[in-house]
């Protein structure tokens, strides 16, 4: 059996590559042929999973964190001039910081510094994976950093996102998870309206412009950035469809499979592309709100460590026709 193994990271514990390697080791031990394809949805881990497909050189540069404390950032640059920037590396909610993590003052200046550095290194297209931000600045910090550095040298901009939230809804939807209390959400929302009115184009009525606290909207308004679903971008670059054409079974994975997994995440994108090829999910845990989404999978296996992942790989089998018919009727 030929198995396409395409997991996301188990955030905070295993990278997508580590998960793919563990599952593949078990599958190979059982005599199966494997295709390892670590994936991401346009947030954390996107730079890592695109490094091999795009032939990226990793370049380290000076930057600042969301509260303007100096830090080191990096981006990947391909031979054809595509730069991959992961916003969460310097503007992320988990970015290291010794001071107060204030949701009202966090900004994207550091990400703008990295984008400008990529342009100066010859990038013709700058792709920003926008997931996991600590910020709700409407992208104004990044725009200021880019202006301070002299611009993007005509490089085009693509922003990868997995949300459809609009610009001035960003604080309400995402602010609380970044530490914003109700009063701060109101303050940030007011700022986003003011920012929208100050930009060259008004992003308020455009889907997806609220990603990363409005960063995507700022890029759209100033640089006519293309807003693309991160999961589909990664799958296209990785060559998922070509690999799927030769696969008998697909294995997906993430740290937690729950109701949110169906909303623009990498697993939902893979299910949409897999057609009649059965899909098995190997995950760290399963949420109580999974509901009928479970019926989309040939099997769901909980494997929270590397040994369990290898065991899951070794136990992979094709579902029987009867079990497929049962799942189809359940759906």
Briefly summarize what is shown.
By secondary structure, this protein is of the alpha/beta class. Helices cover 38% and strands 20% of the residues. The model is unreliable at 322-331 (pLDDT under 50).
What sort of overall outline do the alpha carbons produce when their principal axes are compared? globular
Could you give the order of the helices and strands? EHEHEEEHHEHEHHHEHHEHEEHH
Count of the separate structural domains? 2
Low-confidence runs of at least 5 consecutive residues: 322-331
- Percent of residues in β-strands: 15-25%
- In CATH's first tier, which class of the largest domain applies? Alpha Beta
Q: Which structural class should the secondary elements be placed in? A: alpha/beta
Mean pLDDT: 93
Widest sheet, order of strands = 3-4-5-6-7-8
- The CATH superfamily of the largest domain bears the name Glycerate kinase, domain 2
> Whole-Å distance between the termini?
26 Å
CATH topology label of the largest domain: Glycerate kinase, domain 2
Helical amount: 25-40%
Radius of gyration, in Å, reads 20 Å
Biggest sheet descriptor: 6 strands, mixed
- Count of β-strands: 11
How many DSSP H or I helices? 13
